[in-house]
Give the backbone structure.
Amino acid sequence: MKRSIRITTSLMILTSSVAIAAAQNKNSSSPTAGASPSAFESKEIKFDGANVSLAGTLLLPKLESGKRAPAVLIIAGSRQTPRDGLTFGTAKQLIYRDLAEYLTARGYITLRYDKRCVGASQCVKPASFDDYIDDAQGAIEYLREQPQVDAERIFVFGHSEGGLIAATIGAINDGRLAGVILAATPGRTLNKMMRDQIQSRMAEAGKPEKEVADFLARYDRVLRGLMSGVQDFSREKLNEKDQYDAMLIDLIKQREVVISLLINDPLQIVHNIKFPVLALQGKKDVQVAVKDAQFLEEALKRKQHPDATVVLFDDVDHLLKTNKGAAGWASYADASRPLDANLLTVMTDWMRMKSK
């Protein structure tokens, strides 16, 4: 089936109001991510994306014969990301696997998948960021075809960059969705987000102010070049062995994909979502800031979305995990921390209400 999706598509604008909530982790009495799950079935599956075959894991709770259950599609962040999570150095942060098992233990069918060119999925170079959106649409179509899935109760969960995919699907999807969940989702263009991330990362690493300023100047030149169509960046003399230059090299190599993220305002996507929206944001996130969630809230409020909730969590980082220490990149090395219990409860309580 041919799909035509553009991240800049302008669709119907809905009217009503936005609810804003603040959650305090210390008041949570919810179960943790490590709570003993009920028995579920795991299936290795494949489905068609945009001219590519993608592999994933379908988790099914035990259901009575003939019964159907609500489903959740989990969309990972950062383009080429495997289905289970992310790796930082030697730390494997299997956040998507943990989330899927948590939800399936509570009666939801879940599907998580390897992005194209990673894991067991086929490698076809994306022509643009739209291909990642088409891939996720293929996953939704797969879920709708499953006899155990209640097609009227499918949720789309997107984390970080995956939230932009989920938001776009919520704006352009022709079928029925029970809701769209945006977890640590940017409210600014990629160039603004990355600039802040790099600056904080270099500062935390103790880099001298001049070195930080010099790199940010180089960053600004490269990003301006990408947005204006420059193809040759040899004058910058980028060193692939330098971790910060390597980020720029990666952007240059993936210019076809990142250009949409550089020039398109996420808020123009979010305010066109046609379904209930839940935005989750940790205050100790050093990649996506609280102000991003506030921008999302303002966009939804400005367009008077009829059913939107934004929730902030005091001790939650970008990995959706509890962080009682200082906000910083060092926390990524600790894979033992669980997904935040309060965040999971807020999300599942919201989903329960929307799937009735």
About this structure: The two ends are 31 Å apart (CA to CA). The longest strand covers residues 149-159.
